[in-house]
Amino acid sequence: MAATVLDPARHHAVLFDMDGVITDTASVHAAAWARLFDEYLAHLPPRAGEDHRPFSREDYTRHVDGKPRMAGVVDFLASRGITLPLGRPGDQHGQATAHGLAALKDHYFGQELDSAGVRVFDDAVALVRALRQAHVPTAVVSASRNCAQVLRRAGIGDLFDARVDGVLAEARGLAGKPDPATFLEAARLLDVDPAFAVVVEDSEAGVRAARTGGFALAIGVDRTGEPQRLRQVGADVVVDTLRAVSAAEPRGGPRPLSTVPGAGVHWDEIAPRLLPGRPVLAFDFDGTLAPIAETPAEAILPASTREVLAALSRRCPVAVLSGRDLDDVRRHVGLDRLWYAGSHGFEIAGPGGEHFAHASARTALPALDEAEARLASRLSDVAGVVLERKRFALAVHYRQVPDFAVAHVLDEVRAVTPSSITLTHGRLVAELLPAVAWDKGRALRWLLERLDPTGMARPVVLYAGDDLTDEDALRVVAATGVGIVVRSTEHGDRDTWAHYAVDDPGSLGVLLTRVASLMHTTGGDHDRGTRLHDRGRH
């Protein structure tokens, strides 16, 4: 079984189901349900069209697992052709209403719990603790009204940062799984965008909820030897033990964005790191050089930033690595002496006519064409959605989509993404890219090899970016270069490989002006930068 690694730079929270994932209370629930329905069906007078066979394991999986008690009662009885008055929430166990049966199930669950106790899955607890050590917040999401009691009896009541259970769901009017409402509430409590949160579930209803809610990843936990049931409803990964899932090791680099020091007040540290080497400057475009706009077409590079980029490009290699199409980013920047990488580095062009297009990525172009056509049809009635096709990518922007429709947009994007395409997430955008091992970090390495083919020049790279896709490049420069992150509240306090931070593109422009002044006043930088730049032109 291939290991699944959760990366704090991309996965900002993990939401766990309780029964069957954290605790072995799924078997306790199953026993309580079986006792309830077997007794009820045995005493029910025969009626035409009704099925009074004993409650089965398949009934549990299909009709009640992961659902609120009332939904489980109603759905199971409906599957047997049986109707029962709903009654009222205060009905006592023993009353011939759906609420009465739900109360009786709760009573039986308590008895079973007293008898069997609570067994905790060690693999799940180990994963939660590893995530907490990596500063990834966690939540438990359960339909059970007994969730707090179960966690307390198991000795892990304080393990999670948030809890959404049957009691809270009822108080706030949250629909149960397969509706994503409880998972979305947990993400809200953790202040995390669902597009950057992971759901860990063992029930079909829970996996469906994760998919509908637009979560970054749905991990199915199969402890029964039936992994296909979770794959069929959309689990991205199915494991039989959570020991196959791990949190990425920080390796001394990433840290919370809120702890990254400001570049402006630490200029006395940055300047010496640039002076001894042969600088190469590389930047993301949207949100880094240019402010984020409502639509990609409206983004404008400030004139002052364009001027300083032009000045810098006369002294050292300068590159713009963008998620935009190559021709699009080149048009928006409008400077001839720069290197440009489009579609997150799948296509690169240099100032001397150099050109690179990732060969393996070309095979994914028909799949991107098909995905674009299907999404154009499926999302045609969604206000505010913008499809941006690039040669090697398809971006689905939902910045202007109403909040209630975002989950639908993301679900449609997932539905049209084939195995030859990988789905990534950025600042209010979902992007389809060729499923090959390539990113901005690898594109930056390609550029550095082109600029310094002998490896003797040893350039010092300054890279600035704002988005999750920039972390691959920031990681490349973490050991020997200067990494700058442009802060964004849209991603929350995520981890970053950057050394310093600026508050916005305007602040980055001011910093680059200081870099240009530094290079102008240090006599040898111009010659060293020009020689390195010229290496890339031959």
Please render the helix and strand layout as text.
Layout: E1 4-6, E2 13-17, H1 25-42, H2 57-64, H3 69-79, H4 98-116, H5 122-133, E3 138-141, H6 147-154, E4 162-164, H7 166-172, H8 181-189, E5 197-201, H9 204-212, E6 217-221, H10 228-232, E7 237-239, E8 245-247, E9 255-256, H11 267-274, E10 278-283, H12 303-313, E11 318-321, H13 326-333, E12 339-342, E13 347-349, E14 355-357, H14 365-378, E15 386-389, E16 394-397, H15 403-415, E17 421-426, E18 429-434, H16 440-451, E19 459-465, H17 471-477, E20 482-486, E21 495-496, E22 500-502, H18 505-521, H19 525-535
Parallel strand pairs: 1-8, 2-3, 2-5, 3-4, 5-6, 6-7, 10-11, 10-19, 11-12, 19-20, 20-22
Antiparallel strand pairs: 9-21, 12-13, 13-14, 15-16, 16-18, 17-18
Enzyme class: hydrolase
Pathway: Glycan biosynthesis; trehalose biosynthesis
Function: Removes the phosphate from trehalose 6-phosphate to produce free trehalose.
Overall number of structural domains: 4
**Count of helix runs:** 19
CATH topology of the largest domain, anyone?
A: Rossmann fold
- Under CATH, the homologous superfamily of the largest domain reads HAD superfamily/HAD-like
Mean model confidence by pLDDT: 87
- Provide the helix percentage: 25-40%
Q: Tell me the distance between the termini.
A: 46 Å
Which overall shape is indicated by the principal axes computed on the Cα atoms? elongated
**How would you write the strand order of the largest sheet?**
14-13-12-11-10-19-20-22
Query: What is the annotated CATH architecture of the largest domain?
Result: 3-Layer(aba) Sandwich
- Which percent band covers the strand fraction? 15-25%
Largest sheet: 8 strands, mixed
Number of strands: 22
What structural class is derived from the secondary structure elements? alpha/beta
**Unreliable parts:** 524-538
Cα gyration radius (Å)? 27 Å
Name of the level-1 CATH class of the largest domain: Alpha Beta
